[in-house]
Amino acid sequence: MHIAARSPEALRERSAYYERIAHHHMTPLWEVLGALVPPQPRPPVVPALWRYAELREHVMEAGRLISAEEAERRVLILENPGLRGQSCITQSLYAGLQLILPGEVAPAHRHTQSALRLVLDGEGAYTAVDGERTTMRRGDFIITPAWTWHDHGNPGDQPVVWLDGLDIPLLRFLDAGFAEKSEQQSQQPLRPEGDALARYGSNMLPVDFRQAPSEPTRVFVYPYQRTREALLGIAHDTPDAHFGFKLRYVNPATGASPMPTIGAFSQWLPAGFETQPYRSTDGSVYVCLEGEGEVLVGDQTWRFAENDVFVVPSWQTLRLRAGRSTLLFSYSDRPVQQVLGLWREQRL
Ligand code: GTQ
C-alpha cells in the first residue's frame, strides 16, 4: 500500500527518496509531468520589440570597436528577454544585426546552420554564395543554405546593416553543427551576378533539374522589388481577415520553403487595416520593411516603424494594425513543424 499522500510525513519520506534515487541519476516523472506535457505551449520566449532607430547607433559603434575581419561576423545578437545568454530570439531561431563597413570583408566560411539575410540599411555590399555574388539592396531576402560557402563584402561607400536569421538554436539542440573556414578570404566569382535567379528563379528550370523536397533552392536572392510587385499585384483583392495579403517564399523547384528549417513570408497590410486575432505554434520574427503600425501580442501593444523587429512566441495571439500601408517580412520554424506533423494554427 502506498503512503497516504501529502501528509507532512509522506512528503518528507518522498523527498528523502528523491535524494536517494538522485545518486543514481533518476528523478520522478510525477513531479514534472505537467511541465513536460503541457496542455498547450508554454514558451519561455516572451514577446519583444527592437526599435531600429534606437539600435542603429549601437550597431555603428561596434564598427569602431572591432573590424569585420577580426570579428569574423560583426553582429549584435537580438536576444529574447526570456532567454538571455542563450543567443536566441525563439527556442529554435537566432536573429542578429550584422554591420559591414565600406572596404571590409567578412571572410568565407560554411556551416550546417542555415542563414537568411534581410537587408535593412545602406546599399552596396554583397553576399557571395557558392561562387556567385548578389548585391544587397534594401528589403532583399538572401539565403545561405546549410553547408554553402558564403562571405560578405562592402566595396561601396556606405555602412550596410542587415538582419541575420539562422537556425543556430535548432542545430545546437540536435547537436548537428559543423563549420569550416575557407582558405580564401573571399570566394572567386564562378558565375556572373544574376545567374542563379535566371536559371532557377524565372518560372523555368534547367530541363534536367530535379530536387528532393528537403533540398534548399538554388535561388539565393529574392529581390525586394519582385516581392513588392507580387504583393501589390494581389492587393486589389479582398484582404484576408487574419493576414491582409500574405505570401510565403518558396523553392520554385519544389514548392517547399527556400531552406528546410526556416520558412519566410511577406505580407502587405493596406493603410488602416487591422488583422483578426491569430495564433500558430511557430514562434515568429517580424521585420517592418515599409510603413508603420501597432502590434498586439497577448496583452502587450507596441508601435512599430521601419526596420523594427518583433517576436511573437508560439501560440500567443497576434493582431496587427497598419497605420500607413505596411510591408512585413517574417520567418519561423514552420517547415520543421510541418514535416513533423506538429504545426497548428488558430484563426480567432
Ligand atoms: O554571416 O555567416 O549572425 O555564421 C551568425 C553566424 C551570421 C554568417 C551570424 C554566422 C553568420
Radius of gyration: 23 Å
CATH class annotation:
Mainly Beta
Helix content percent band: 10-25%
N-to-C series of helices and strands:
HHEHHEEEEEEEEEHEHEHEEEEEEEEEHE
Q: CATH H-level name... which superfamily? A: Jelly Rolls
Number of strands: 22
Strand content: 25-35%
The appropriate CATH architecture is Sandwich
- General form: globular
Largest sheet: 6 strands, antiparallel
Number of domains: 1
What oligomeric state do the depicted chains represent? single chain
Describe the structure.
It is a single chain. The chain has a single domain (48-347), classed as Sandwich (Jelly Rolls), CATH 2.60.120. It is built from eight helices and 22 strands. It has helices at residues 8-22, 33-36, 52-65, 68-71, 168-174, 195-200, 224-234, 334-339, and strands spanning 48-50, 75-77, 94-100, 105-111, 115-121, 126-129, 132-135, 141-144, 150-153, 160-166, 179-181, 221-222, 245-248, 263-269, 278-280, 284-290, 293-297, 300-304, 309-312, 318-322, 326-332, 345-347. Strands 1-19-16-21-14-13 form a six-stranded antiparallel β-sheet. A six-stranded antiparallel β-sheet has the order 2-3-10-5-8-12. The chain has a five-stranded antiparallel β-sheet with strand order 7-6-9-4-11. Strand 17 (293-297) and strand 18 form a beta hairpin. The longest helix is centred in the first third of the chain and has 15 residues, at 8-22. It is globular. The mean pLDDT is 97. It binds 2,5-dihydroxybenzoic acid (GTQ). Residues 73, 75, 96, 98, 111, 115, 150, 164, 166 line the site of 2,5-dihydroxybenzoic acid (GTQ).
